[in-house]
Amino acid sequence: MERKTDIRISPRVLNDKGIVSHTENIYKITDKLIRLAAKLTEDWASDIIYDIENINKAVELREKHDRLLFFREYGVTTRETETFDAHAYDTLLFNWNPIQIWRLTHNPSTMETKLIRVSIYKN
């Protein structure tokens, strides 16, 4: 669980480890992203293509990646976790009603790439 000064991000289900890859092959994560977008969105499911391109690039270049993915009825909104705060959360909720929230991360030092469903709470 991660604590920020004004929000808290935690796994949606206790002890959920998410979908994890320790290699450059992240096909299971890519597959899950495509399935989520197709299942949860009514329109603009193709928004997820940008997130797939970004995570593939981060893995290839061995760069840190940490994003929150807000699946909505009309697409996917992505925000950087590091800069996401209570104001950004309030703004997002005012404009859209997310159906599900997922966190997509890549740690270049361990080569761990993870996709996990999360909940966000204001402190």
Question: Which strand-content bin applies to the residues?
Answer: 25-35%
| Number of E-state strands | 7
The percent range for helix content is: 25-40%
Shape: globular
Please count the helical segments. 3
What structural class should be given to the helix and strand makeup?
Answer: alpha+beta
Topology as a string of helices (H) and strands (E): EEEHHEEHEE
Contiguous uncertain segments of 5+ residues = none
> Could you give a short account of the major beta sheet?
7 strands, antiparallel
What is Rg?
14 Å
Distance between the termini: 13 Å
Mean pLDDT: 91
Describe this structure in words.
It contains three helices and seven strands, in the order βββααββαββ. The mean pLDDT is 91. It is globular. Strand 4 and strand 5 (75-80) form a beta hairpin. The longest helix has 14 residues, at 27-40. By secondary structure, the protein is of the alpha+beta class. The protein has one domain (2-122).
